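Hey, sorry to bother you again with one of my protein questions. I've been puzzling over a protein and I'd love to understand its fold better. Take your time with it, there's no hurry, and the full record follows here:
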Amino acid sequence: MGGRDGILGTVMISGAAVAAAAVLQVVSLAGAPLQQSGSSPAQDGEKLVSGSDCSSCHATDRQLVGPAYAAVAKRYAGQDDAVEKLAAKIREGGSGTWGAIPMPAHKNVTEAQGREMVKWVLSLKAVAAPEKPAETKLYAHTLKDGKTVQLDFSLFVEGKAPKVTKAVFRSYELFNSYCYRCHGQDATGGQLAPDLRRSLNSGLTAQEFLAVAMAGRKDKGMPSWAGFLSETEVNQIYQYTKGRSLELVPSGRPPSESD
């Protein structure tokens, strides 16, 4: 994949890729209708949200792939048509209000469920702003050419390189369980999708990586992983792929701290 947007390159879907997308469709929010309990409307709304794939792209008080729930509540506070408007957005999907990243449609959410979900989101307008995050710790890694790069995560167990951390090893397992079908075994590049190592070396950020993974690119054959992989898991996959792009993590099973 050449260039910053290489990850968004055209993908020709094979039988295996279609099967992967089908699995995602079964386990994601696009499956059977959401169940609603007999508790209060506010509790029902929160349970409907937590039981969906919403948390893959949204958090209560911080930007993720999409806006924070509290930010949505603040923007639509006092608007009489907010509930109906946002409930329709949940069901129909769309983009443009908060940026270009599309929100997928959730046709299995009923109109009544959508309204309850929105009412809960709008109730969060009084959520306090999150505390200022602690300063990010940086880790130095020396490349093969002798240059040093600083990452905001550690690839290796402290003092035990080249043994990778549990998070990176888990990412290796995830990548070679799901991503390899299109992006190649061990992130070596595939015929169906861009070489992610080149994407990262061309400037694709962790946030952009997360956004593409969660939202997908239906027009390019890239399925949405929202509701199947968590934010943590996608970030782990990014770390592994970043290590591969820098030639710090070898092809094949990397040595881990459990070895």
